[in-house]
């Protein structure tokens, strides 16, 4: 009888270890870092070119289902995500950032802000992304800071005519760069071809 | 010591099987939940539809793009 309980316990413990290890290794546990994966890293912008392909293993498929459901294959789009600024600090709502980017090796692109749950943050600012259709001189407020596209990432709309990505109610967040119809060269050698956006921290609010 | 070999082997086998099964089933379960949410919101499945632009208030799946027109 005691022997049977030992085997029963072994089965129950094995099931627990199996589920827990699978959820952890696939990034399915709450609070999992969406960047704890990937086979491409360009200046902190991480991607996984196996998404949507037969080369994707079971861990990648489960991770995509959790953090990037309905993601396209790399021939149609690739996704780069970054959770830290140029100083290496986590992106967070309390800070204001200057985002600048130039031409992208793709037919069209966009940059979107997501919270730690991989969802659009709960605000009604209608300012959660910028895209190639907004091509203009990189402008922060009314100051032209270079060629390409520039935007302020902040919880409140900045003064001036510049583009704005709202981080209101985002907490800790990430920025995801989507590159649609990517150039072949980008898929072959992303580190040499991609000049990823810069995320420069400007100021942070200190909690009272 | 030898009497523990059996239980340990059963534990390891159970863990490996459940680990693989969890990975295999997870995408389908998550996708089914997403489709349920869409159905609850009145989105016609397996049919042409013209949803409005995605907002934080209407998003149903992770990492929806507010720049795209989903159809």
If you had to describe this structure to a student in words, what would you say it looks like?
- The complex is a heterodimer of chains A (208) and B (71).
- Chain A is built from 4 helices and 12 strands.
- Chain A has 208 residues and is α+β, with helices and mostly antiparallel strands.
- Chain A has a 4-stranded antiparallel sheet with strand order 3-11-5-6.
- In chain A, strand 7 (138-140) and strand 8 form a beta hairpin.
- Chain B is mainly α.
- The A-B interface holds A 6-7, 9-11, 13-15, 17-19, 21-23, 26, 28, 58-59, 61-62, 64-71, 110, 112, 114, 117-124, 126, 128-129, 131, 176, 178 and B 6-8, 10-24, 26-27, 30-31, 34, 54-57, 59, 61-67.
Oligomerization state: heterodimer
The tally of strands of chain B reads 0
How much strand content do the residues of chain B show? under 5%
Helix-strand string of chain B: H
The amount of helix of chain B comes to 40-55%
Rg calc of chain A: 20 Å
The description of the largest β-sheet of chain B is: none
- Strand order across the largest sheet of chain A: 3-11-5-6
Low-confidence blocks of residues of chain A? none
Average the pLDDT over all residues of chain A and give the rounded result: 86
What Rg of chain B do the Cα atoms give? 21 Å
Overall residue-averaged pLDDT value of chain B: 85
How far do the termini of chain B sit from each other? 63 Å
CATH class term of chain A: Mainly Beta
Number of strand segments of chain A? 12
Can you summarize the main beta sheet of chain A? 4 strands, antiparallel
Write down the domain tally of chain A.
Answer: 1
Shape of chain A: globular
Percent of sequence in beta strands of chain A: 25-35%
Could you give me the name of the CATH homologous superfamily of chain A? Answer: Domain of unknown function DUF1214, C-terminal domain
């Amino acid at each position: 009888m005691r022997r049977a309980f030992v085997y029963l316990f072994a089965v129950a413990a094995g099931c627990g270890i199996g589920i827990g290890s699978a959820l952890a290794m696939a990034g399915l546990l709450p609070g999992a870092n969406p960047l704890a994966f990937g086979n491409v890293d360009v200046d902190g912008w991480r991607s996984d070119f196996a998404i949507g392909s037969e080369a994707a293993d079971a861990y990648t498929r489960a991770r995509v289902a959790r953090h990037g459901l309905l993601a396209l294959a790399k021939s149609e789009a690739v996704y780069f995500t970054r959770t830290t600024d140029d100083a290496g600090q986590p992106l967070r709502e309390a800070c204001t950032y200057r985002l600048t980017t130039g031409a992208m090796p793709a037919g069209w692109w966009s940059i979107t802000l997501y919270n730690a749950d991989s969802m659009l943050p709960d605000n009604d600012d209608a300012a959660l992304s910028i895209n190639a259709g907004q091509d203009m001189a990189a402008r922060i407020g009314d100051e032209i800071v270079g060629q390409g596209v520039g935007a302020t990432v902040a919880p409140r709309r900045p003064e001036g005519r510049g583009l704005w990505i709202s981080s209101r109610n985002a907490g800790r967040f990430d920025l995801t760069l989507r590159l649609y119809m990517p150039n072949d060269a980008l898929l072959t050698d992303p580190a040499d071809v991609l000049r990823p956006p810069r995320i420069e921290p400007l100021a942070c609010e200190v909690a009272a | 010591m030898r009497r523990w070999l059996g239980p340990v082997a059963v534990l390891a086998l159970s863990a490996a099987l459940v680990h693989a099964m969890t990975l295999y089933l997870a995408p389908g379960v998550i996708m089914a939940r997403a489709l349920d949410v869409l159905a609850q919101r009145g989105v016609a499945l397996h049919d042409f539809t013209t949803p409005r632009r995605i907002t934080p208030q209407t998003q149903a799946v992770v990492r929806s793009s507010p720049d795209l027109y989903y159809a």
